[in-house]
Design goal:
By secondary structure, the chain is of the alpha/beta class. The protein is built from nine helices and eleven strands. The site of zinc ion has 8 residues, from loops.
């Protein structure tokens, strides 16, 4: 096995094949809402009811979708690397739980996750699977009215950046799957990895904005490309 320590970044493309509609940056709209209204701290302060309702719908929609062959293959990769003394660091920009449901044990949700709440008072995060309202109280500090969806909004710092940078500096290979290469800081991971001599690979439906930074790009559906690539890695 050539690559024992692999860092993978996944984006909207891998969830799209499971039927999850994702944020469309181009129009500045998300499910007919203005991004400023449902994906910024200011929007939440202005209308917490609306913001909770928006994410309640997204959370409920998770029950209608299933992980696809790409999610399942990455769980197999995590297992295979572990058995060979290696390590998979799976970082996702997606806020769905399809990697977990596909069987991956350790997932870094750098943009948060729909199945979690965040206390705006003490920053406690806890699993939450039902519909939420602004009146929800935090199970740790018991303060009401400040609980919010555990989603990293525009203008906020993504989670676990120091862990991701550490893993990137210690990996054999960085792989980007189904990302547009347009959202920073995630879009900069490939430059970070290649600047310190790491091998880089992109698996994407079409060339991303950062395509030229990768050693290799394979184009096609994640559900086909990812299982093929995982078999290659585990065979060598
Ligand atoms: Zn709290």
């Amino acid at each position: 096995m050539k690559s024992k320590k692999i860092v993978i970044l996944t984006g909207a493309g891998i969830s799209a094949e499971s039927g999850i509609e994702t944020f469309r940056a181009a129009g500045g709209l998300w499910e007919n809402h203005r991004v400023e209204d449902v994906a910024t701290p200011e929007g939440f302060a202005k209308d917490p009811e609306l913001v909770h309702r928006f994410y309640n719908l997204r959370r409920a929609a998770l029950k209608t979708v299933k992980p696809n062959a790409a999610h399942v293959a990455l769980a197999k990769l995590e297992d295979g690397l572990k058995q060979n003394g290696g390590q998979l660091t799976l970082v996702t920009q997606n806020v769905d739980d399809l990697h977990e449901r596909g069987g991956t044990k350790e997932v870094i949700h750098m943009h948060g996750i729909l199945t979690s709440m965040l206390c705006g008072t003490c920053e406690h995060r806890w699993e939450y699977l039902e519909d939420a309202s602004p009146h929800l109280s935090c199970p740790k500090c018991y303060v009401k009215n400040t609980s919010r969806p555990d989603i990293v909004w525009f203008g906020e710092m993504p989670y676990a950046m120091h862990v991701i940078e550490e893993r990137l500096s210690d990996c054999d290979l960085f792989v980007s799957i189904g990302t547009s290469g347009a959202v920073y800081p995630a879009a900069g991971f490939v430059q970070m990895a290649s600047s310190i001599g790491k091998a880089t690979l992109e698996l994407n439906l079409e060339r991303s904005q950062g395509s030229h930074f990768f050693d290799e790009s394979r184009l096609g559906a994640a559900g086909t490309l990812v299982p093929q690539w995982v078999d290659e890695v585990l065979k060598v």
